[in-house]
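DUF7745 domain-containing protein, Gossypium klotzschianum. Tokens?
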Amino acid sequence: MNITGMSEQWVSARIKQKGDSKCIPWKSLKDLILTHPDVRKRVDVFALSIYGLVVFPKAFGHVDEAVTDLFDWLDKRVTPIPAILAETFKSLSACRKAGEGRFIGCAQLLLAWFHSHF
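Tokens:
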């Protein structure tokens, strides 16, 4: 959670296990957005929150740790396309194996990638 600029203790105290993922509650991120002394970090955490809650919703009211890793990669100028495709493939495979379930991922991003590559 380098993107928050908070200490490891702060993050550890707020991370929760939701199913098979570690997540941080939206309320913790909201409090951070409202009180963080660095305005740039506030904007980064707000973007992370929206991205995690809307684009890759995994647990209601929580942002998946994988989304925070993705944002960390973006900050280091590493492309997120392989990570998005891997998560999409994993989600689609799980739905296919179970014969039911819902797709967890961003269909719009996947569609945009397909259009740009084929």
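The helical segments are 8-14, 26-35, 39-55, 65-75, 81-98, 107-117.
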